[in-house]
Design brief:
184 residues; alpha+beta; four-stranded antiparallel sheet; two-stranded antiparallel ribbon; 17% strand
């Protein structure tokens, strides 16, 4: 037999004077657990913390960006940063030259060719690097190909424009709750 249980969720609606940056945050709080589901201008996010070690709302107010976004995005809060790939390629060439895996002439050739590729990112970019005759002495293996990452701008905007105001509201609620308990 299938059971259907109806429960209450709290909805926090974050709105700004401009129509940008909105978010709807649904909370289902247990004694020491919290389920969060979010629809926002910056995407959808969700996570279920089955044991947060105390008051769920207090737990939410204490999270830092990296931990929170890891959980809400299932570790997808970083994206490729192709603008940093040339920096990584330069570093690999310098290290290879210092490690004597490249001659001075080979290092110069790698510098000229690997930093002036036709493509700047994606599979075709990697193919150009892998197909280069100096791939092995410069990179040694595929795992050392450029892989710079940056925080996904949508995640950062979500954090700044939706999560931070939401946490502010939770802190106000917790302060009021504490005042009421203290008066008793």
């Amino acid at each position: 037999m299938t059971k259907v249980i109806k429960t209450q969720a709290e909805l926090y609606q974050v709105r700004h004077d401009t129509c940008e940056g909105w978010g709807d945050i649904f909370l289902i709080c247990g004694k020491e657990s919290v389920r969060v589901a979010i629809n926002s201008d910056y995407g959808t996010y969700s996570h279920n913390w089955t044991h947060c070690g105390g008051d769920p709302k207090e737990f939410l107010t204490e999270m830092d960006f990296d931990y929170c976004m890891k959980k809400l995005t299932d570790y997808k809060h970083y994206i490729a940063d192709p603008e940093q790939y040339p920096v990584e390629v330069k570093q690999r060439i310098i290290e290879s030259r210092q490690g004597e895996r490249l001659t001075k002439a080979d290092a110069r050739e790698a510098w000229e060719d690997m930093l002036c590729t036709e493509h700047r990112e994606g599979d075709l970019y990697y193919k150009e690097l892998v197909d280069h005759p100096l791939f092995q002495p410069v990179f040694g293996d595929y795992e050392y190909l450029p892989s710079a990452k940056q925080i996904d701008p949508c995640c950062q905007d979500f954090w700044d424009k939706v999560w931070i105001p939401f946490v502010g509201q939770l802190k106000e609620e917790l302060a009021q709750k504490s005042e009421v308990q203290h008066e008793r």
